[in-house]
Amino acid sequence: MKIVIAPDSFKESLSALEVANAIEDGFKQVFPDAQYCKVPMADGGEGTVQAMVDATQGQIINLTVTGPLGLPVDAFYGVLGQLYEDGKQTAVIEMAAASGLHLVPVNQRNPLLTTSFGTGELIADALNRGIRHIILGLGGSATNDAGAGMMQALGVTLSNMANEPLPFGGAALAALHHIDVQSCHPAIKECVIEVACDVDNPLCGPRGASAIFGPQKGATTEMIEQLDHALGHFAHTVNQQLYQSVDTHCQLHPGAGAAGGMGFGVMTILNASLKPGVDIVTNSVKLAEYCHNADLVITGEGRIDGQTVFGKTPMGVLHVAKQLNIPVIGISGCLGPNADAILAEGMHAIFAIIPALQPLEQVLSEAQVNLTNTARNIAAMLSLSLVKK
Predict the structure, then answer these.
(1) 226 Cα distance to chain centroid
(2) Are strands 192-196 and 157-159 parallel, antiparallel or unpaired?
(3) Which of 172, 121, 124, 181 is nearest to 144 (CA)?
(4) Are the C-beta atoms of 282 and 41 separated by less than 8 Å?
(5) Which long-range contacts (C-beta less than 8 Å, at least 24 apart) are formed by 361-368?
(6) Counting runs of H as helices and runs of E as strands, what totals does the chain give?
(7) Superfamily of structural domain 2-41+286-384
(8) Which fold has domain 48-277?
């Protein structure tokens, strides 16, 4: 019997690899001789770097970069242990590692000033190491600068009417007068950049980056209007000077408003493609190859609910397994409202691991034991169907 274990992390409790190990431990109590393939998974959000590094036996690169407030912060990215097409090495970067909201104290959050420069430094470091395939996860950002800081870190010159470099922050984009991409890192032209993006917001307007995501980054009503105007001016300048159909395409492209407009920046300046995060991960770790000839696939995440079917890890794993006609079981910390939506999509069964009402701290600390016990019980139930009558 071949069993593929491909879960996401259980946030604030277990990494994806730790979840996979716990499930394996439980199943081995019933099926000790089965073949187990553990493939830590993610959907492009927090934990993606660690999951993909674990899945491919890669490595973490630690680096000090410029944080959202312009001060040094400790950040990281991953280098996968397996090669991409044409022998390219792959780096996986979470924008939040360098430019995340968690790096800014609540009383200092101000998207007029915060920068994505550190994310650009992570990209530049990967390019300098010879990496030519980059997976960039958007989300959790403290910024609203359309990726301008990232571009500056990569050598792009953004200047005002006095030919002075723009300062950091989303407000500064309103003064943009000239863009010079000639000095951009030369390796960018050789690099394939895939961006994990699971929101469909355009750059500007009522559903744009500033209006929807600005408040959580510290923006007031007045700031939102200022930031939205600045993003619009930035898009117009890119369209005018780089001869791209930004006003009719990229600015309105679903995902352009992701991560404070970073989606727009990577599409226009870095020629990157925006894709659902879980699709990028499943393809990059070659999940379908692991599932070949499998008898069962087990996946999961901290909470399975009605939102799981909209691009979360269990849904991505289910999609791969369904194409190969392999049954799938989901295990989660808890089941939320409309969790059965994923059953309607073809998952065979879902299970929660919490055995009783407990304080959250206890639930998190006992997750590994509860997960192993649940996996063992699922395996025991499966074994009944294998008993010869």
Answers:
(1) 28
(2) unpaired
(3) 172
(4) yes
(5) 363/333, 364/12, 364/13, 365/13, 367/10, 367/13, 367/14, 367/22, 367/333, 368/13, 368/14, 368/18, 368/22
(6) 14, 13
(7) Glycerate kinase; domain 1 (3.40.50.10350)
(8) Glycerate kinase, domain 2 (3.90.1510)
CA 356 to chain centre: 32
Q: What is the pLDDT of residues 274-333, one digit of tens each?
A: 999 999 999 999 999 999 999 999 999 999 999 899 889 999 999 999 999 999 999 999
DSSP conformational letter for 10 = B
Q: Could you say which DSSP state residue 247 is in? A: I
Report the C-alpha gap between 235 and 62 in whole angstroms.
33
Asked whether 38 and 5 are in contact (CB, 8 A), the reply is yes
Instruction: Indicate if the pLDDT at residue 389 is higher than 50.
Output: no
- Tell me, what amino acid is at 33? D
pTM as predicted:
0.88
User: Measured over all CA atoms, what is the biggest interatomic distance in the chain, rounded to whole angstroms?
Assistant: 86
User: Structure tokens of 241?
Assistant: 């000077």
Map out the domains of the chain as residue ranges. 2-41+286-384, 48-277
Alpha-carbon distance 51 to 110, whole Å? Answer: 31
Strand-strand pairing, 157-159 and 178-180: antiparallel
Q: How many residues does the chain have?
A: 389
d(CA 78, CA 169): 27
